[in-house]
Amino acid sequence: MAGFKADFLWGGAVAAHQLEGGWQEGGKGISVADVMTAGAHGVPREITDGILPGKNYPNHEAIDFYHRYKDDIKLFAEMGFKCFRTSIAWTRIFPQGDELEPNEAGLQFYDDLFDECLKYNIEPVITLSHFEMPYHLVTEYGGWRNRKLIGFFVRFANAVFTRYRSKVKYWMTFNEINNQANYHEDFAPFTNSGVKYKVGEDREVIMYQAAHYELVASALAVEAGHKINPDFKIGCMIAMCPIYPLTCAPDDMMMSVAAMHRRYWFTDVHVRGYYPKHLLNYFARRQFKLDITDEDLQILTRGRVDYIGFSYYMSFVTKAQENNPHLDYDETKSLVKNPYVKASDWGWQIDPVGLRYSLNYFYDLYQLPLFVVENGFGAIDQPESDGVVNDQYRIEYMHNHIREMKKAVVEDGVDLMGYTPWGCIDLVSAGTGEMKKRYGLIYVDKDNEGNGTLARSRKKSFWWYQDVIKHNGENI
Ligand code: P53
């Protein structure tokens, strides 16, 4: 039986703000991640007005990858990584976001980082905007609610595409652009779009406007990237949590379709280059006045992505509710527990089959190559007396997900480019700001309060994943 392609991109994934630290090194500006405090499960991270004394901002130091990347990449190479997904911190290149010229020290840092990867034949896979846009663009422009952001982003994209055109082939534009479908809470609008809502504002229409500008910016970047290097593969990045119906009651099934429409129309625009009709009808019903020009619509058709990158951690469940004739979806109210699966300590429902389902969903709809650019198990790790973390639970999680991914390739025939488990080295959680919610195959000695030596050590999963890569997944 055939398996994964011979050149399958096994690797690991991180984001600049969650591991680099060095928040003021090399001329870096303040990013949105730099003004978020540490929270916990059920305790949201606080978004402060600038940096306030006495608060704990875990991303400022993170795991100090900025100074330690050579040792860390050496460990990735030891595991056999074929690729390494990280992001370029926009604030290292354009510290405020609206400068005309890039910051050379920031560009040099990523030159050195990519050279270090290439030394081991590790392909960099690069996200342009991963929850770390310049904070100045929030305070001066209101974030992505402002059309001017398109120009700033495209300038940033052009600068890095040009600089790294012979070092980086695989790119993604906006990380988990669809997280902001949950505009009810403050987290996603701020991390995706630098949007802070004022009391009484219609959050939803602002979300659609910000997302539209991002989609236009993404399309312009794709178009520009292909001119700079026709070999570039530029993808979108979608947070895939498929939404199942709670039962086979027809109304539950239809509610799941409607919920999927609200969370995944972003992929339609990225891939097909136009808005789905159901969403245009929704805008009309809600009487949203959106700034979407004819020129924008042209741009969207020209900047279609080459592949679909997506994260997969969990599935969701919804059901039909009384007094909801239009099947409106509210991510904070419309979801219910899945009685058939267990959840992590952070309430994320563990569902390996959902990964196979997701791969089929995307491939049936779009027939584009797919790339699982995040997957993993956030858990509390406890080093044993010999200092090693015996993370059998993480091995089990990854094994079960890779097995389902393999069925999607071998039995269902989806075109899969690679697999990069999230947080291949322990790092700061995006959602909670904790160190305690660990994903790594490499342990980092640091706790939620910032104590620890930052020393790295191999977990049991390190050796397991090394073996998976060595055998190209044949042993799963
Ligand atoms: P943390 C929500 C749902 C799915 C993925 O998340 C998400 C989120 C945001 O919390 O984020 C992605 O650290 C994201 C990464 C993030 C990772 O998943 O909250 O792309 O930056 O760290 C895991 O456990």
TrEMBL record:
GO terms for cellular component: cytosol. One of its GO terms (molecular function) is beta-glucosidase activity. It comes from the Bacteria. PROSITE patterns: GLYCOSYL_HYDROL_F1_1, GLYCOSYL_HYDROL_F1_2. Coiled coil: none annotated. The active site is at E374. One of its GO terms (biological process) is carbohydrate catabolic process. InterPro entries: GH, GH_1_N_CS, Glyco_hydro_1, Glyco_hydro_1_AS. Pfam families: Glyco_hydro_1. Gene3D superfamilies: Glycosidases (3.20.20.80). Keywords: Glycosidase, Hydrolase. NCBIfam families: PRK09589.1, PRK15014.1. Belongs to the glycosyl hydrolase 1 family. This is 6-phospho-beta-glucosidase. It comes from Kosakonia arachidis.
